[in-house]
Amino acid sequence: MDKIMFNNWPDVGYTTFCQKVKRVQEGMQVAKSGSLVFCAGEPQVYTLDQLMRGSAEMLGKGTMGTTYKAVLDNRLIVSVKRLDAVKLAGVTKEVFERHMESVGGLRHPNLVPLRAYFQGKEERLIVYDYQPNGSLFSLVHGSKSARAKPLHWTSCLKIAEDVAQGLSYIHQAWRLVHGNLKSSNVLLGSEFEACLTDYCLAAISTTTSSSDPDTNNHRAPETQNSTHQATPKSDVYSFGVLMIELLTGKPPFEHPSVRPNDMNSWVRSTREVVGGGGNEGNEDHKRLGMLAEVAIACSVTSPEQRPTMWQVLKMIQEIKEVVVVEVGECHGPVVESS
């Protein structure tokens, strides 16, 4: 993909943004709302000016905005999300600042660190660490030119535990919610650890998208109404959908609406088709079934009947312990396929 300078960005909206940033900075001392604010005591290792001058490429557009990979003049690589102004319409500077200071304090091995944020008169940016190995969506579904196979069950177990660790931390340690969990919002770190991104941004969104089938199929039934905010239990539902996606390699809009027993059978059938008649063996089917049971428990219709994220994490860790006892060791590269 061709790399270009932020200041020469072909997108008219981004060019306008850069011009507005310059106007904020010219002829005055930059106020806090017009500068790059680093979170959680982070050292200021670059300036807004350096960020604007960096070469960049668009990584993708999501529910909350557009994400870019930016390479700064000191060779530091960061991920920059330009938030959708429509999604944040009506959110005051003070509310945004307080929320960023809270979310920017989250630090966990399975969260992509939010390092800094910017807000001007009409524009807002957030800066994350760049994750070199892409998204879980790309790993599970492959690229347009190469269709991926379902992941090996050990990889599913590892990723599920990573995501559950991150969500449990958000829910328990900070009493916050992710609000937009899906495979494109799970990134893979340098050692292929699964890390959550875009966490806690839905809380300040003033609109919800009803036209994006991918997002809607991840969302819990009780949050389909735009007046209902995301909750820890709706995150649990999204986690269940994500696990089914992991186990089957099927995107959420292809998941059937069936009874729990039938869902388990469907999960197994998707592996058999790919594996050519169930070559994974009885033990592998048993372990896949255990993971599918966790996913089914998470994605029940009633929020009250869903487990908490901490309980889900314990379920996954118990499966891991069983495997360790049976096999002696539970490991496997994330990219291994069945």
UniProtKB/TrEMBL annotation:
Residues 207-232 are annotated as: Disordered. Residues 53-323 form the Protein kinase domain. InterPro entries: Kinase-like_dom_sf, PRK1-6/SRF4-like, Prot_kinase_dom. Residues 222-232 have a biased composition (Polar residues). GO terms for molecular function: ATP binding; protein kinase activity. This is Protein kinase domain-containing protein.
